[in-house]
């Protein structure tokens, strides 16, 4: 499935450690992956210029947030219940409109 045109992904309880290698979030505005078994969204940097909302709440195995590379439109991040987080990339450096 081509992911380049995706605007919204609601993939609760995602059963794998990583998103597919060919996942392209370039045009993604909202990513919801509540209660997933994901450990890291992807390897390397992906352009997140369109991303506004990121919800990974309840993803207990998540160890690292994505690098918020060019995420200047990011408004909301929900990491509640992500008990395994050891590395959180600081989004405030790239977004002036971020809400907690």
Automatic annotation (TrEMBL):
Query: Which Pfam families does UniProt cross-reference here?
Result: LRR_3
- Could you tell me which species this protein originates from? Morella rubra (Chinese bayberry)
Q: Which residues form a coiled coil?
A: none
Q: Which SUPFAM superfamilies match?
A: L domain-like (SSF52058)
Q: Tell me yes or no: is Repeat among this UniProt entry's keywords.
A: yes
Q: Which GO terms describe its biological process?
A: defense response
By what name is this protein known? Putative WRKY transcription factor 16
Keyword list (alphabetical) reads: Leucine-rich repeat, Repeat
**UniProt keyword annotation of Repeat present:** yes
Q: Which residues form the signal peptide?
A: none
């Amino acid at each position: 499935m081509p992911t380049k045109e995706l605007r919204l992904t609601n993939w609760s309880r995602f059963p794998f450690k990583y998103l597919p290698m060919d996942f392209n979030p370039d045009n993604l505005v909202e990513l919801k992956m509540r209660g997933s078994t994901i450990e890291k969204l992807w390897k390397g940097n992906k352009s997140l210029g369109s991303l506004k909302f990121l919800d990974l709440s309840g993803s207990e195995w998540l160890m690292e947030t994505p690098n918020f590379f060019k995420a200047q439109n990011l408004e909301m991040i929900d990491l509640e219940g992500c008990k395994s987080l050891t590395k959180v990339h600081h989004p405030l450096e790239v977004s002036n409109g971020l809400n907690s």
